[in-house]
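Same chain as my last thread, 175 residues:
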Amino acid sequence: MAVGQVVGVDDPLDMADSSGDIQRIEAWVDEGNLNLTMTVYGVFAPSVEDTPAGMTNRYYYHWLLDTDNNPGTGVLNDEYEGNSTHLETPIGVDVMIQFGWRNGATNGVYAYTLDPSTGDEVGLFENYAYTIDGDTIHAIIPLADLGLTPDGTIAVSAFQEGASNDWQVDWMESV
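reply #2:
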């Protein structure tokens, strides 16, 4: 993705809890920062009262970055916990950026990678800058924090898992 170029991908409405159902992600580079947005069909960070009846206010939204744009490196997102993700264009995930939301408050705002030998999370940094406006979050992360430079090419994907919909996972195609 070139500096100033915005890329995005859409996903259909397909979950019972619209706040856990990702509609669109976008990414662009500006002033040395990676900008990421994620829009859901409902409310991005819903209050407990905004959570549909019978659902739990617990969401874990993730942007997935293939920082070298090479599906042969990193963790391939073609399966999750032994189940196929059914993605047409999986990526080799090098960095995961999470925004967690539980019981009406943040619950894990950080970036991590996975240890290739154990699969355990290895924290990279916490508390990146973000704003939430209704159905959309906008995260701003310095490229240096991600080990990126403005002239690189990355691939981006996303998923949301949460107890709101019995831990159903909503996967986004890659761009």
